[in-house]
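Job type: complex structure
Entries:
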Amino acid sequence: ETGVTQSPTHLIKTRGQQVTLRCSSQSGHNTVSWYQQALGQGPQFIFQYYREEENGRGNFPPRFSGLQFPNYSSELNVNALELDDSALYLCASSFGRGAETQYFGPGTRLLVL
Amino acid sequence: SQQGEEDPQALSIQEGENATMNCSYKTSINNLQWYRQNSGRGLVHLILIRSNEREKHSGRLRVTLDTSKKSSSLLITASRAADTASYFCATVANAGKSTFGDGTTLTVKP
């Protein structure tokens, strides 16, 4: 166990709805990264937050947004859900902007119908 | 597109045999990492090798890195049924942002 927790574990939504996923980072970590993993593929980087500010973003549209709170927990928000948003969403925490090692949570599996 | 590509996509071996997985990537890197994932759960970090290193060991794991060929390999020796999982390589070029391949699915038969 890494100490990184995510909620909820599973979620079912319909197209057009909005969803918020949550991540609590490992104690002492101030950086959170979010990844989307479609079935049968590797994780794809969505964005990273370092000390409450966005510190890099992957190739995802603006309807994917995030927040990091003063306690370094984080939220991933996805608006106007599409069927292709169905995936496992992983968060990873680390210490520092340039940390080499990230610790992953168990993920939230999102199904969009 | 993914930075790293693992080969083979799937590997099935008997318990006690060695398993070798390969990873190729496209651009310069700071380091390369291998992760393991059981049944669509979170990723577990296995080992990190920096761009100036050529080989690294951790228990039954051996990782090599050839920056001239932009490739890495992960060797699991004396495999066990519990090693059954998907294995991913991830390259880190910019600070903290990992780029993953699509993984190798390893099945170890008891």
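Summary: Chain A has no helices and eleven strands. The first strand of chain A starts at residue 5 and ends at 7.
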